[in-house]
Q: What sequence folds into this?
């Protein structure tokens, strides 16, 4: 996200505008935590993980009154255009502000990659590589034939991160919120995998999967027969780390595009990546919809796991 | 590339086909270096850098006679469909084979990212992150106000890697083959950067830039006034390293899509990424064209460097 | 460990000896899984995580009969000298074999770093850097003032990895098997940390700590007051990954030193790193003892956390 | 280095002392660039590469008058104890200040690892891992049999970094300032390496080696026979990057030990790592001496390269 903040600020300066950062999200907006940005201040933040502006949840902003108050706050502060960087919740907030007269452009940033209207969102690529690194490391030592490794990755409602890290890491199975696995078949796949002499059995599980990481872990450990399961819970490790090149470039392009859009009079729009290009879409079309997981890619994950065809837990 | 080989093989096995790897590219094809692939063999290659099949140049294959002989070689070996993974040269070869009756599908893989018809090619993302890591490290210590750091990255004809790593790394300037910089202006930008109190001046230079890394390096060192320049030449460091999540997923998707295309009777086509989807394009449209560098992104790089507007070397 | 295998083999070849790898540890030894090693075979293993020879537990080898049979197996195979690479268990086994007439030299390799007689063991540095990377990433986003982050790292009996990664990562607290923390004080430290305005509270917990990661996690979540805890369980992630420079150099030096020791007639000895030098110690002195955690370093961890002096959970 | 600054500050606060950072080294000392440090300020610097205090060379401080003026400056500022972090030059400066009545303790920090009296210095491990990563990446693609890869690493007078990264990376040869290689033999080793079918030939060259990276590069390219050489010059990449666990722990221990030493009345001493312990040595013994490269390790590098015994360039 820092790369987007820097891009917005530098693009604003290039247009002789002032730039102000709002700390701690909508809560900070309501509390008036405005921080004027300078060219120098945004100079060293590009490679840092997290966000220098901070994030926070606001219950007040969830109400129409809170939204109204936020809009007035911006007006009083003389803010002529607002760039909102965030996921579904933040973008919905942006739409609410636009409805109250604020000129606003949204930038999608969420590791779930479920924002409609963009190929991908800021943060996805970095989180994916972090999860992948963990899977790669587990694979290095996962040479005992009677051991399953369960890796829990983020994703309460969306299995994108789990599915993609499973494919990139060469996991044997993946469990996501969007699809209900056949439990017995998963266990059969696991057993088949020993008979094939596979050196490992790695299952990537999204937080919100119907069969949770903890459940699968216990399921294997209780199955008997000398079989063991080991668990890894990545947690907030996935939210940090210096951003990848892809994320920094995406954020830089989206940030500059947002300022350009504002300067051309756009409002109530979101910047989306479509192919090689940045496009503008109405926030009203984006909010309330979400990009579903591609079932073909879910199927591909199983093909790539290399099981014989009678094995399928889908 | 290994991820693509694995995906092609596993997708083939899922269709009850046999899969054979050809080692050392077109030279290996002419020399008959065919290696039958098994499910197990492709199991551990996903996270490895480089390519297990090797690469090589072939002068013989560049001739019509060589191409004819290669086509016959494939015929005799009973190869019913060929997947070619590579850049402009490899894809041109694929087209030549198709013209000689070989069923062939191409997959774009080159760190230059200049293949027409695809948003990106296998290898670009990994090389970009490697170059970025080097720039990040230089930035950490680049705190002496009178020092320029020159980083040479790959790209003889194409500045994509240089431009994108400069943006991602927050470099002050970038020199690419596609655009001729104004030499005096670059030096002025460098001097301006001290006056502004910038803690570093990093220039990313593509191998084929009109002003080479070595030339700029000497230019600064000879300018006098206690100014020094330090040089980093990344060389083949950029071609290795465990592939990123993006590259592994892209390769997995392209590899399975190529086998699917062959099974549906396609030939003389290339798999291209367009937005979130894989598309098929005729190789004849791809070969001979190349994806040019986007001048808007070149301009954005300068905006993001944060110079006052009278400074521009473009 | 691969670096040690390569060093043993190459040093043996330099002495015109043959080298044989025993797969799957003592179990493989009893089952006769001997694999002749060649110069080429050990060429590409240096940068790989895990061990190409595999590991396994053997209940048979734990008995005197098993040990006797293993000794005879080596004799029949014509093995004139054995290098054993591993932790306390493996080194004890080495001593048992020596007592049965096998010429043996041990090399300490365990991520617990509790082997007596050596400054450090193979694997410690790599595991430490992996744990550190996770902590660094958590720190990037750990900016919510009312959240604790609990990170479970390996160490059932030994807190070395937890303590050192806590220091390297700048964690606020660390829980290890060797010391009983004062539970109320830990919670007070946590509360104090918000009052001080600390942007994060990270606790590193060894698997075998008296207050487990799960317990501390629940303790915080149940404390009320809007406080949340997030958990990360690193698990086997810590056992993999390409080894660090330190580990590869250590393994290379220990491997060559072991062959040199055998060639000079040593047996029943272990190679230990002491300062800049490799030393030989009797296995009988090493086995049964262990290197205790340094209480001064445990104290230092608390000093470095930067709490006011009335805060201490030790 | 930041880890050492943080440790010194936090250990000082634990003793109810104030802590002041001096920016830009001895030059900053002469110019009075004193920056009071707070608990919070040193909180986020642990994982950052480079040094927050900056470095600079000072010609004035090299003179007795400059040293005298520096000592008075410290006196006037009420500095009761000084911790100097740096290499040979900085430690010599520390001794000069001590001779002028300043209470001073030194901490060795240099990527050359040539400081006498300590097993290793701050920064060595991080630089080593950076160089190693580059070599690993080159190895991934170094599969063309008639290509040499030359990697230049830092070390004008000292070959430690080159030697150790060559061993860790499995390079075929290493050229260091301390030993004169036999030029024809190096070329023979290179040719022998193809005949053996080795997939790569990597030479690590220290900046100050008698045969420079550029010279070896040209030597190979001019040798004819289709042989090519590729060069990588790492430059300042080696000075940056988030410090490794080893370096952060070393710096933390040395920083706290330095404050402890000052509080116990020590002066004119250096903290050295010896085995698992921190020791105090007189700066007068350290300055003017240097830790030589171990010829046994230089020899080991050649053994590990796995050449037949008639090949030796030493």
A:
């Amino acid at each position: 996200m820092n790369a987007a903040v820097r891009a917005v600020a530098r693009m604003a300066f290039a247009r002789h505008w002032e730039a102000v950062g709002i700390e701690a999200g909508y809560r900070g907006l309501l509390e008036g935590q405005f921080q004027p940005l300078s060219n120098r201040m945004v100079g060293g933040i590009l490679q840092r993980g997290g966000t220098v502006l901070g994030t926070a949840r606001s219950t007040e902003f969830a109400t129409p009154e809170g939204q109204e108050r936020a809009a007035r706050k911006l007006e009083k502060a003389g803010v002529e255009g607002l760039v909102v960087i965030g996921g579904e919740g933040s973008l919905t907030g942006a739409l609410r502000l636009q409805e109250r007269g604020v000129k606003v452009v949204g930038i999608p940033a969420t590791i779930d990659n479920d924002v409609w209207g963009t190929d991908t969102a800021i943060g996805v690529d970095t989180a994916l590589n972090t999860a992948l690194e963990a899977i790669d490391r587990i694979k290095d030592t996962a040479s005992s034939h009677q051991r399953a490794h369960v890796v829990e990755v983020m994703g309460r409602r969306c299995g994108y991160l789990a599915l993609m890290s499973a494919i990139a890491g060469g996991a044997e199975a993946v469990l996501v919120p969007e699809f209900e696995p056949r439990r017995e078949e998963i266990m059969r796949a696991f057993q088949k995998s020993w008979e094939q002499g596979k050196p490992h059995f790695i299952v990537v599980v999204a937080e919100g999967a119907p069969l949770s990481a903890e459940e699968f872990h216990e399921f294997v450990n209780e199955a008997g027969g000398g079989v063991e399961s080991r668990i890894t819970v990545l947690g907030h490790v996935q939210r940090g780390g210096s951003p990848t090149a892809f994320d920094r470039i995406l954020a830089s392009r989206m940030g500059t595009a947002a300022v350009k859009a504002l300067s051309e009079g756009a409002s109530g729009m979101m910047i989306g990546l479509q192919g090689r290009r940045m496009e503008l879409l109405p926030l009203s079309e984006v909010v309330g919809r979400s990009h579903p997981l591609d079932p073909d890619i879910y199927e591909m994950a199983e093909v790539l796991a290399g099981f014989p065809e009678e094995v399928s837990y889908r």
Q: What stands out?
A: The beta strands of chain D are 20-22, 34-36, 82-86, 104-108, 147-153, 173-175, 201-206, 228-233, 269-274, 277-282. The first helix of chain D runs from residue 2 to 14.
